[in-house]
């Protein structure tokens, strides 16, 4: 199994020291003279008074990798022409593809902690199959967002819509988010985030990465074109 083909293409926080008081003169004198040493060459090493203060950093102070999976739903069925587009189920081939991609994402270590999905039947069923075969998908927090279905048909709006949804539902401790939806919006968003042309066929997952202390900071810092495309997982790349 391999990855599918890729496409073309702090502020430092102030440290506050509380309850500090200078050490007594006798300790300073002792530490000062013990720090003065002569090297083998006879040259005098630098003399300095060092007062060490333990500073404990927190997770919020660190810029960390944040990963975004943009997954288009698996192949749907046209067997029932009377159904609304929103209500079309997966085909048998689509069901098989969802299993392959979920297992490949698990092998790569790209398991989301948060899943935001269109509420269309084919995206719901894609997720259900992934949850049945990979425990990690079942353990993720899930939100179905009806606007994901409609925004995908609107030119140039999906990327901003996804950014707002991710910042709304995520928390700083969530490092991997998966958004499930439809074309043309999903491949358009992937292309805008990375600055490269990305094609997402059914059940293709674009793996994007950037850094930030929060999702808001990550989107602001990366902007459009600043996300790194780590790869594209496809059903055919999983065989």
Helix and strand topology:
Blueprint: H1 25-34, E1 64-72, H2 92-108, E2 114-117, H3 121-133, H4 135-139, E3 141-144, H5 147-151, H6 158-169, E4 176-181, H7 185-194, E5 205-212, H8 215-222, E6 228-233
Parallel strand pairs: 1-4, 2-3, 2-4
Antiparallel strand pairs: 1-5, 5-6
Helix pairs in contact: 2-3, 6-7
Task: Give a written overview of the molecule.
This is Phosphoglycerate mutase family protein. It comes from Citrus sinensis (Sweet orange). The chain is an alpha/beta fold and 239 residues long. It is 33% helix and 15% strand. It is built from 8 helices and 6 strands. It has helices at 25-34, 92-108, 121-133, 135-139, 147-151, 158-169, 185-194, 215-222; strands spanning 64-72, 114-117, 141-144, 176-181, 205-212, 228-233. The protein is globular and about 50 Å long. Mean pLDDT is 82; it is low at 1-59.
Order of helices and strands: HEHEHHEHHEHEHE
Gyration radius, rounded: 26 Å
- Which term fits the overall shape? globular
User: For the largest beta sheet, what order do the strands appear in spatially?
Assistant: 3-2-4-1-5-6
Structural class: alpha/beta
In whole angstroms, how far apart are the ends? 6 Å
Main sheet overview? 6 strands, mixed
Residue fraction in strands? 15-25%
The average pLDDT is 82
Oligomer: single chain
- Helix fraction bin: 25-40%
Question: How many beta-strand segments?
Answer: 6
Question: In terms of per-residue confidence, which ranges show pLDDT below 50 for 5 or more consecutive residues?
Answer: 1-59
Q: Count of helical segments? A: 8
């Amino acid at each position: 199994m391999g990855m599918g083909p890729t496409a073309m293409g702090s502020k430092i926080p102030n440290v506050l020291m509380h309850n500090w008081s200078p050490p007594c003169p006798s300790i300073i004198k002792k530490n000062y003279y013990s720090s003065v040493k002569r090297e083998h060459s006879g040259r005098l090493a630098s003399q300095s008074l060092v007062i060490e203060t333990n500073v404990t950093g927190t997770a919020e102070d660190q810029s960390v990798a944040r990963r975004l999976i943009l997954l288009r739903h698996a192949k749907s069925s046209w067997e029932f022409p009377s159904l609304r587009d929103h209500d079309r189920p997966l085909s048998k081939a689509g069901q098989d593809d969802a299993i392959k991609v979920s297992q490949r994402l698990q092998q790569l270590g790209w398991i989301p902690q948060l899943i935001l999905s269109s509420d269309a039947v084919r995206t719901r069923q894609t997720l259900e199959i992934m949850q049945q075969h990979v425990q990690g998908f079942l353990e993720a927090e899930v939100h179905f967002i009806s606007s994901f279905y409609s925004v995908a048909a609107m030119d140039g709006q999906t990327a901003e819509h996804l950014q707002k949804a991710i910042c709304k539902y995520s928390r700083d401790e969530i490092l991997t988010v998966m958004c499930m939806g439809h074309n043309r919006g999903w491949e358009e968003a992937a292309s805008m985030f990375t600055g490269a042309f990305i094609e997402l066929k059914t059940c293709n997952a674009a793996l994007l990465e950037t850094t930030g202390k929060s999702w808001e900071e990550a989107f602001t810092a990366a902007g459009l074109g600043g996300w790194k495309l780590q790869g594209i997982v496809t059903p055919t790349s999983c065989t």
